[in-house]
Amino acid sequence: MNAEQTLVALSDRSPHVAPEELIAGLVPPPQFHDVSFASYRTDDSEPSQAQARNKLEEFAASSTSKGFLGKLFSKGKDGPKGVYLDGGYGVGKTHLLASAWHANEKPATFGTFVEYTNLVGALGFIRARDDLSQMKLVCVDEFELDDPGDTVLMSRLMRELTDAGVKIIATSNTLPGSLGEGRFAAQDFIREIQALADQFDIYRIEGKDYRHRGLSEPAEPVPAENLDAATSELTGTVARDDFPTLLRHLSTVHPSRYGRMVDGLDAAVWEDVTTIDNEGVALRFVALVDRLYDRNVKIINSGQALNKVFTEESLAGGYRKKYMRCLSRLTALSSQ
């Protein structure tokens, strides 16, 4: 270890977050602390990017300066109450979402779909709804349909928030009307999803994944015998863990606390990465990578290449989009 490095282990961290801290913690992650609509770099060959930015900027401006009376008289009106950004991985949806949060009047919240479901689990639906109803804007990143119960829960929460006059902006990789297609047959789920889709103006963002910067795969793993030397070259706070031990530890920490667990890290070193053959373990790992990506934590590893961390069955299954997003983020973090 060099003098400019502090070495820790994630498997030694078991943070606790008080329920009342959860609302206060719903802000853009460090990677997006200073972004703006002006700093969003559009691809001239993809006009949908500039169009989506302009529409979202207009929406944020129209939401600003609406006081109590504006919210009161907006209740019950027909028409969309929010904006939905659809697009592939790495086209800048989170950048735009965070830009809207920064541009909007406060109080406002920013979090992933999973963070909001965790919030409801920690506070209970009524308190979470009442607290979020005080917001002028609620930003929901990476809307997911991994669990039908969570989908119904979020659909109800978002409808009740829009009824209270709260504006909502959401991002996802799938259009709202298609979220349940081919996955859940129950008609009540379809009705819930359709009701949610009707709340939003939908804008599609086309483009290539900017995170890869010409790369299609994560960086090559470091040979085990060279990992000590590679680790010693890192500066700042570095978390070094045996990969199987880290995966076991994740099962002991609620995903709502993963952000707190990785706070302050500059790099993560994983020894002996192996392919994850258990779906529950894989999904916890995805949640960890999301929080590392939020904080732009560099990753190096030995063992299996990071693009082999999920099985072929997982990549072909119902969580494919989530795993593919994770691989995109692993590529970005390991290629710094």
Automatic annotation (TrEMBL):
<dbReference type="InterPro" id="IPR027417">
    <property type="entry name" value="P-loop_NTPase"/>
</dbReference>
<dbReference type="InterPro" id="IPR005654">
    <property type="entry name" value="ATPase_AFG1-like"/>
</dbReference>
<keyword id="KW-0132">Cell division</keyword>
<keyword id="KW-0131">Cell cycle</keyword>
<dbReference type="GO" id="GO:0005524">
    <property type="term" value="F:ATP binding"/>
</dbReference>
<dbReference type="Pfam" id="PF03969">
    <property type="entry name" value="AFG1_ATPase"/>
</dbReference>
<dbReference type="GO" id="GO:0051301">
    <property type="term" value="P:cell division"/>
</dbReference>
<keyword id="KW-0547">Nucleotide-binding</keyword>
<protein>
    <submittedName>
        <fullName>Cell division protein ZapE</fullName>
    </submittedName>
</protein>
<keyword id="KW-0067">ATP-binding</keyword>
<dbReference type="GO" id="GO:0005737">
    <property type="term" value="C:cytoplasm"/>
</dbReference>
<dbReference type="GO" id="GO:0016887">
    <property type="term" value="F:ATP hydrolysis activity"/>
</dbReference>
